[in-house]
Amino acid sequence: MNEVEIGLTKRATRGYSLDDVAVIPSRRTRDPEDVSLAWTIDAFTFDTPVIAAPMDSVMSPATAIALGKQGGLGVLNLEGLWTRYEDPSAVYQEIAGFTETEVTRGLQRIYAEPIKAELIAQRLQEIRESGVPVAGSLSPQRTKEFHETVVKAGVDLFVIRGTTVSAEHVSQNREPLNLKEFIYELDVPVIVGGAATHTAALHLMRTGAAGVLVGFGGGAASSTRASLGIHAPMASAISDVASARREYLDESGGRYVHVIADGGLGRSGDIVAAIATGADAVMVGSLLARASEAPGLGWHWGQEAHHATMPRGYRAFVGEGGSLEEVLHGPAHSADGRTNLMGALRHSMATCGYSELKEFQRVDVVIPS
Amino acid sequence: MNEVEIGLTKRATRGYSLDDVAVIPSRRTRDPEDVSLAWTIDAFTFDTPVIAAPMDSVMSPATAIALGKQGGLGVLNLEGLWTRYEDPSAVYQEIAGFTETEVTRGLQRIYAEPIKAELIAQRLQEIRESGVPVAGSLSPQRTKEFHETVVKAGVDLFVIRGTTVSAEHVSQNREPLNLKEFIYELDVPVIVGGAATHTAALHLMRTGAAGVLVGFGGGAASSTRASLGIHAPMASAISDVASARREYLDESGGRYVHVIADGGLGRSGDIVAAIATGADAVMVGSLLARASEAPGLGWHWGQEAHHATMPRGYRAFVGEGGSLEEVLHGPAHSADGRTNLMGALRHSMATCGYSELKEFQRVDVVIPS
Amino acid sequence: MNEVEIGLTKRATRGYSLDDVAVIPSRRTRDPEDVSLAWTIDAFTFDTPVIAAPMDSVMSPATAIALGKQGGLGVLNLEGLWTRYEDPSAVYQEIAGFTETEVTRGLQRIYAEPIKAELIAQRLQEIRESGVPVAGSLSPQRTKEFHETVVKAGVDLFVIRGTTVSAEHVSQNREPLNLKEFIYELDVPVIVGGAATHTAALHLMRTGAAGVLVGFGGGAASSTRASLGIHAPMASAISDVASARREYLDESGGRYVHVIADGGLGRSGDIVAAIATGADAVMVGSLLARASEAPGLGWHWGQEAHHATMPRGYRAFVGEGGSLEEVLHGPAHSADGRTNLMGALRHSMATCGYSELKEFQRVDVVIPS
Amino acid sequence: MNEVEIGLTKRATRGYSLDDVAVIPSRRTRDPEDVSLAWTIDAFTFDTPVIAAPMDSVMSPATAIALGKQGGLGVLNLEGLWTRYEDPSAVYQEIAGFTETEVTRGLQRIYAEPIKAELIAQRLQEIRESGVPVAGSLSPQRTKEFHETVVKAGVDLFVIRGTTVSAEHVSQNREPLNLKEFIYELDVPVIVGGAATHTAALHLMRTGAAGVLVGFGGGAASSTRASLGIHAPMASAISDVASARREYLDESGGRYVHVIADGGLGRSGDIVAAIATGADAVMVGSLLARASEAPGLGWHWGQEAHHATMPRGYRAFVGEGGSLEEVLHGPAHSADGRTNLMGALRHSMATCGYSELKEFQRVDVVIPS
To answer: Using alpha carbons only, how large is chain C's radius of gyration in Å?
Structure first.
């Protein structure tokens, strides 16, 4: 371990972010056209390893469908605007119109509206009709309340996503979600997280999860570190969770649980670094919030931003960077690493001589000083 | 030791600040409601481990009372405005009105006004009448002069606070304060500091102190490092002083001296990091100066700012961030980590699976690169 | 190796940029006049170790000639404006006139114009007539298509330059360039790159190259790191490639392949650091784009800036810093390290007591913290 | 040694600046009044360890006298404005009036005026008449030309100061200054530098120098690093030169050569750090240029700024920070660490429990991360 002595009684691990890491080509190069970005989880194969973050600024039923058609996986936030409001268009307008001083209180008020079970069913049905894989997400707190609705409505993949999700939640006053039982009963692949350590991820893998989200929501619009003092530098977290994947693969006699980087992906180069440090796929927020099809009208915010008593996220302006197709597959007409994300990943892999995502996890990396 | 070779003749210790440290959740989570923030020192138990810094921008008799009612400990600066002026309201207005070029000379003039023993007695009496624990502070230089006044007026806890306080002050021209004797005679729990090394803290503990303040006044409004070249990165200092706590606990056969982080606490995440690296409680300045009840009118300054010949602190604008209750317990309507401080600490501990402050000192931490 | 553990499954090398490195004089000093900057590659000796980057903002046929007369080597980009347009003057004006929002699309359009073989021949002929050594560059992708034109037109040195060039390019759909065969047939010294590791460079050296370009185009106007996640800190890359030079020198029984730093040279101090870490010569872009003779009209851009689907470079404003002679040999009338580049190198070598470039590769260096 | 591997062929030393270092008080404190700042070199004892840098913005004959009366040592630049111009007042006005674009050319022109031997004699005489110790400086290049003038005029201490001065200067075209012979003949204590390594300093000590200047002119107004790639982080350089002091003390059987930090002293905290890492005294530039008696009219520049062909320094605005007495001894009315320099040093030493400069070289230091 990469240990640091803070003082006489306390040691720490040193952690690296995706920004800290760069890949370094070596003796072989390859044609970008020969690179495959295919990613298979359970019975589902996707052309690209991109999952949209279940955030209201990123995903509507329509954009989940559009992303599915572009080869990625759209995940709808089942406790967001689309399941609280019959027609959230006016709400999106309102959010886009808030001043900086109004926005946190405004979001707190807007998200005080109750979630409707019938809207969950209706939104999932809209996606199903399009023919793309259907995926929705709930926080651990809401999963107990709404999972039967979700099961009845039918999903192909289910995501349980919170700042931190553990396999062992302790509570004095209520019966906590038993993840293992729940996943067993649900009978569809479940992706669960965030987690950021070998131990936490290993325990999540043992619940039967098909994938683990790496990260604590440390994205562009989060203040989790300033507020809670919690932070997991992504490159190190991915590598530590990949180590749990390896241990669990052995102890389970061959179950491969996917490692999905969730947070800190602000440029295509960060997606490259996430795969290079061990991720199988990436959950992308702000980069997709820039697509013209994204519902957020150029703004981006997460669940933490509207917490009723302890908001710890911001509404961030991300602007518009082209169609979803351009964002994912180009062509790009700017050089900032925010469009043609898959072209960049493909090009980087080719330049380093790799043709498959799984192999690219072994690429040489450098930490610039 | 985490040693660095500066050159062929000089070695240094590497030190980490609270900003450098983040906590990292692992396999267990917990409900925030199940977390206790109770802190006991000597015969006093507080609902929260928060002590207000004895600074004129933070504490008036009224805010000391208000903080006591919110579960913290207010400490009145007994050599500040409230003991120099019968009614300091106009002085606070004057300080708030200074331009940047006027302010240091202005503070030097305002604090040239002599301290009145009768005002010390009167202010402490005001606090006592409210029923909250009574605490006041003096610098080591003033302790000899005014401690009898203080003892006569009666305090529950006494704080001796300077940039650096040692158990062994050497002077050629006067009899220095004998801390050990003084603490023995005073017969109330004494918190003393700043100190930042194992050795310095151990010697302070041996004087009979109930608590040691960690830090050299390195807060938001200080220029001690630029002026004196003195600096102690807080996370390392806390851990080193916690190591003295452990040694003294053993050598004294069980006296537990409290380690209190004093300085560098600009966000709730810093409070989390202070406990995580070994602090029992925190002494908070600028964060409380933002409460609407704070006397500083949106400004914050410390004792160093008005030194007659070598000022080494600034008047900093901190603005207003809600009522004292909101600052401590929320609800927050902004995401900057400066309100709902205790909610954030509670939430962070719960996310990491801890329910008691003392246990949380063992949480895993990471140093992002 | 200077290894870093990113996490439990991934290690990285720590890399240093030229900015990170400073040379440190020691016991001997020397007169600057006694320093030689002569550099010999194959049959060509140059008064200075400066090669101009084959970028349209830096090199026209006229500036290639001017640089040759100043003691350096000008390399014309054979797939740039001068071989796409009969008279590119108006195109340069257009590029200089683009707004920031227009520029990437504008460059994409301008460089969509086909390359003309006859213009390649004509431009090389112009340079030849001046009597200076003739050098041109192609990307690996274009080399197959145009190298016969180049050979027929005649060059003294040939440069194959791409973001990454490897000795082993793999393609499923076309016959890739066989570098070794190509270099053997070409029968003039070939400089090839970028490369940044010992292995990659060693394989390039084995193809018969006379020089290897170190770097991945990480200059002032590049966003390769943000886009592709690819980055090679230059000081470390130079040293690693110099290690390949040493290995190949031994295995080949004495062939000395030149190590040429290409990228990250923004000040004369960076040129010093490049030689100090092992480079034989430097390929300079933005610093020469500032010469009044440079064709770019105060702007600088590279090949990556106009990629049709994944641009990853910018047009950067560099302004004008004096004549080519002043930029190279002074006198300077500003202190920013961008004029009198050779005077600075000479002065630095003298101050450290060295009189030859090759010896200066051994100078002591420091990494300021 | 604190070694870093840049790449496979190159190692570096890691170096620390004064900014990187902080002192850390421990178990004992002391009254500031009990601290002595006395510094003795050869037959001269000064109340403070402050030498003024021989720069035209800092020293005139009048300020050299004033500094002597305040307990420091003023050194006049014998190849500056005061020995080129009969009355330089108008020249100072002109320099203060230059725009940023004019200033380098303007300085080059102003310093093209020849040095007059008779003015050297006259200026030294002015200082001598005041009764303070007389000190002047020349660069190594000018020492041969003017040292007889200096000897005839009479100095108490002589300074030979260049960016880098070595004991062994090699030249093909002229007889270089033989430092050892020269110092022997001169028969007054000579302070010489800059140097920054153990070896370089040891060789300078063997020439008979009474003091060695540490640093390469890396002050506030220098661009030596950007231009020449030369840089010596001061804390490490001081410690390395202090190691030479120790070795030479032994090999010479007791000659103590003083280590004088020259450069990087922007705040009183930097002076503290210089002593703490091994310096006996400090040569101060920009901090003294702020005194109202300084001739520079609020501007500061060094010799490098007017080099005829390769200027590598700037004219920096430093403003005015009070009288020379206030700058050195206070009282201060601002908290920025630029006034009451000696009060700050005294206070810092007292806080750390030291009463003599020599002992303070042993104080504990920390490198904040």
So the answer is: 20
Whether chain A has a CB inside 8 Å of the CB on B237: the answer is: yes
Q: Which CATH class is domain C45-339?
A: alpha beta
Are D341 and B110 contacting, i.e. CB atoms less than 8 angstroms apart? no
Nearest to B260 by CA among B135, B120, B148, B169: B135
Distance separating alpha carbons of residues C210 and B137, to the nearest angstrom: 76
Residues shown for chain B: 369
Tokens of B334: 């902004």
Closest chain C residue to A267, measured at CA: C226
Residues of A in contact with C213 (CB under 8 A): none
Q: What is the pTM of this model?
A: 0.96
The size of chain A, in residues, is: 369
3-state SS, residue A247? helix
Question: Is B15-366 CATH 3.40.640.10?
Answer: no
Query: Which among C23, C235, C272 is the nearest to D7, CB-wise?
Result: C235
Q: Per-residue confidence of chain C (369 residues) as pLDDT tens digits? A: 589 999 999 999 999 999 999 999 988 999 999 999 999 999 999 999 999 999 999 999 999 999 999 999 999 999 999 999 999 999 999 999 999 999 999 999 999 999 999 999 999 999 999 999 999 999 998 998 998 999 999 999 999 999 888 888 988 888 888 899 989 988 899 999 999 999 999 999 999 999 999 998 666 678 899 999 999 999 999 999 999 999 999 999 999 999 999 998 999 999 999 999 999 999 999 999 999 999 999 999 999 999 999 999 999 999 999 999 999 999 999 999 999 999 999 999 999 999 999 999 999 999 998
Nearest by CB to residue C15, choosing from A236, A333, A369, is A369
Residues of A with Cβ-Cβ distance to B33 under 8 angstroms: 172-173
A87: Cβ contacts below 8 Å, ≥ 6 apart: none
Q: Are D66 and D72 in contact (CB under 8 A)?
A: no
CA distance to partner chain C, nearest, from residue D204 (Å): 8
Locate the domains of chain A by residue range.
Answer: 28-366
pLDDT tens digits for range D63-103: 999 999 999 999 999 999 999 999 999 999 999 999 999 99
For residue C19, give both structure tokens: 């900015």
The residue written with tokens 């307008």 in the block is A93
Subunits touching C (CB < 8 Å, at least 3 pairs)?
A, D
Q: Specify whether the CB–CB gap between B330 and B316 falls below 8 A.
A: no
Verify whether the Cβ–Cβ distance C173 to A34 is below 8 Å: yes
If 0-12 CB within 10 Å is exposed, 13-18 middle and 19+ buried, where does residue B260 land? buried
Please answer yes or no on whether D7 and C347 come within 8 Å at the CB atom.
Answer: no
Contact D14 C366 (CB under 8 A): yes
**Which stretches of chain A are DSSP H helices?**
61-69, 81-84, 89-97, 103-110, 117-130, 140-153, 179-186, 198-206, 224-228, 234-251, 268-276, 286-289, 324-329, 341-351, 357-360
Q: Which fold has domain D28-366?
A: TIM Barrel (3.20.20)
Q: Give the total residue count for chain C.
A: 369
Judge residue C114's burial from the number of C-beta atoms within 10 Å of its C-beta, 0-12 exposed, 13-18 middle, 19 or more buried: exposed
Interface contact A278-C7, CB threshold 8 A: yes
Q: Which residues of B touch A230 (CB under 8 A)?
A: 22-25, 269, 272, 348, 351-352
Q: Report how far residue B6's alpha carbon sits from residue D89's, in angstroms, rounded to the nearest whole number.
A: 44
